[in-house]
Design a protein that fits this description.
binds zinc ion; 3 helices; globular; two-stranded antiparallel ribbon; five-stranded antiparallel beta sheet; 214 residues; alpha+beta
């Protein structure tokens, strides 16, 4: 490339954020990938929790904004440590967590994650979920998992997660496949919380939203 002659304007390349929203499905809320917004966390039995989630194919400012908004929603509510995009009506394979919300150092974003190896050993701990208020139940999961994913720039990475982080990851990962933690409860626990689930179902049906997905 030749030298600039004096007086030439040099324009910096600007990566524009496209104005079309990411394809987040029929329940994707307005501005989820373009504005700073606290998103509504959808409760069971909203159908967005059971829908198929598409892999992210475009990596730009929209995806970063979605991840930011997922953290914003978690911190504003103050009662959760992880969130998956379908829980806010965005049916994309995006999930975030931060086990210590007092600091932003632990913010972790997984896009299009895949579990590629699991431990034979399992353990059982009680879990809760922002889409199932006031409920808890014991879930058996592998104690470690090896995961491949990409970050919000589309760069691939691999991590081996263990103990509490492995559980947190697997809980959010399930959401990306339409699975919620009550699906993994033993029958006795599932039956014990069924009255609470029935309340959620009645609430949902009264709201007049689209058909419930149990
Ligand atoms: Zn959850």
């Amino acid at each position: 490339m030749g030298q600039e002659s004096p007086g030439d304007e040099v324009e910096a390349p600007v990566k524009e954020t496209p104005s079309t929203p990411l394809l987040g499905g029929p329940d994707a809320p307005e501005g989820f990938d373009s504005q700073d917004v606290e998103l509504e966390i959808l409760q069971y039995p909203h159908p967005a929790l059971r829908r198929e989630n598409a892999a992210v194919e475009e990596f730009d400012g929209r995806l970063r904004k979605l991840a930011d908004n997922l953290f914003r929603t978690l911190y504003t509510r103050g009662d959760g440590i992880g969130l998956a995009a379908p829980q806010v009506g965005v049916n994309l394979k995006v999930m975030v967590y931060n086990a210590d919300p007092s600091s932003r150092d632990g913010e972790t974003v997984f896009v299009n994650p895949r579990i590629v190896e699991i431990s034979g050993e399992t353990d059982v701990e009680k879990e809760s979920c922002l889409s199932f208020p006031r409920m808890r139940g014991p879930v058996k999961r592998p104690v470690w998992v090896r995961v491949q994913a990409v970050d919000w720039d589309g760069c691939p990475f691999e991590r081996r997660l263990s103990d509490f982080e492995a559980r947190l990851f697997q809980h959010e990962y399930d959401h990306l496949y339409g699975v919620v933690y009550i699906d993994r409860l033993a029958d006795s626990w599932r039956c014990a919380i069924q009255p609470d689930l029935n309340f959620l179902i009645e609430d949902y049906n009264r709201s007049g939203r689209e058909d419930a997905a149990i």
